[in-house]
Amino acid sequence: MFSHQIIVDRLLKRRYVAAILAALPILSVAAPFAYVPNEGTGTVTVIDTADDSVVAEIPAGKKPRGLAAGSDQHWLYVSDQPNNSLQLIDMRTRTKAHSIPLGESPEGVSISTDGRWVVAAVEEKNEVAITDTRINKLAFTIPVKGKNPEHAVFSPDGRLIFVSAEEGDAIDIIDFSSRKQVAQVPVGARPRGIGFLPDSSRAYVATENSSEVYVIDTRDFSIMTKIKAGVRANGVAVHPDGSKVYISNGGAASVSVIDTTNNQIVATVAVGQRPWNMALTPDGKKLYVANGRSNSVSVIDTQLNTRLRDVAVGKLPWGVVIK
């Protein structure tokens, strides 16, 4: 049986601990960072998405373009076009580590949802190069029929890779399990950015010279519809909930917002000059748009479809990835 004094002591101890816990600051999850490759300055700008401040500038080769972030938040994979390589940047120390040879003129880069594979479009070789992130070495390459591949993007389910043939006016479709191309879909002139709905059922493709967006059914590779976008439609970003698709219009200095329920443009947001590739925060609340000729990133509030601010970055920013 406890004595009266022991009970009093325990009550006082509990109150003391509760007071200490109440005085401690509430810990919050850090906001993700936006990484922006600047092909004119050979750097990657790091933006804290909590307040949109620039927190670092990382050397990244001669002409960094496509980029993807590893799921372990360790490695950032950046294509360096003149050096024909994939640069590895340590996201923890914000320093360049080493590089992986890919082939002549690598461009767009994406990573599989499970984080194991990084694919890069290799323009001059008309192929895609696949890096195994477990060992950070080139695993294999897959040839494509289209000329001058620009972007290579994994479907969220990891089943397919869509490749935009910049000079072939087509999308080359690779079955990843068989490691070979299984279809080619003709689209408008100079296809560029590609984005998938989260369930992998549809792909949206921007075609620059025809200023259109093609919607492709990933089950049978048929064209469901095409949408007239702004002048020189280029980059594609898909909202995490699949409700909206964003298209950057390089010649119109704007971003078109497509409602995926009816594939209609519901808003147009003015941004900087020559908007290129884009990325959304994981919660989908903000869209970051690289403006190649303005040397800036426009930040868009996706709930209000308004531009919040422009963030100065390096020269000729090519795209954005957020992690």
Task: Write a structural description.
There is one protein chain. The chain has 323 residues and is mainly β. Helices cover 6% and strands 53% of the residues. It is built from one helix and 28 strands. It has one helix at residues 4-23, and strands spanning 33-38, 43-48, 53-59, 64-69, 75-80, 85-90, 95-101, 106-111, 117-122, 127-132, 137-143, 149-154, 160-165, 170-175, 180-186, 191-196, 202-207, 212-217, 223-228, 233-238, 244-249, 254-259, 264-270, 275-280, 286-291, 296-301, 306-312, 321-322. Strands 3-2-1-28 form a four-stranded antiparallel beta sheet, with no helix packed on it. It has a four-stranded antiparallel beta sheet with strand order 4-5-6-7, with no helix packed on it. Strands 8-9-10-11 form a four-stranded antiparallel beta sheet, with no helix packed on it. Residues 16-28 have low confidence and may be disordered.
Quick overview of this protein structure:
With about 325 residues, this protein is mainly beta. Helix content is about 5%, strand content about 55%. It is globular, with a radius of gyration of 22 Å.
Span between termini: 56 Å
Number of beta-strand segments: 28
Sum up the overall morphology in one term.
globular
Number of helix segments? 1
Helix-strand makeup class:
mainly beta
**Uncertain segments:** 16-28
Query: Radius of gyration from the CA trace?
Result: 22 Å
Q: What is the helix fraction of residues, given as a range?
A: under 10%
**How much strand content do the residues show?**
over 45%
Order of strands across the biggest sheet?
A: 3-2-1-28
Spell out the helices and strands N to C.
HEEEEEEEEEEEEEEEEEEEEEEEEEEEE
Largest sheet properties = 4 strands, antiparallel
- The chain-level mean pLDDT equals 92
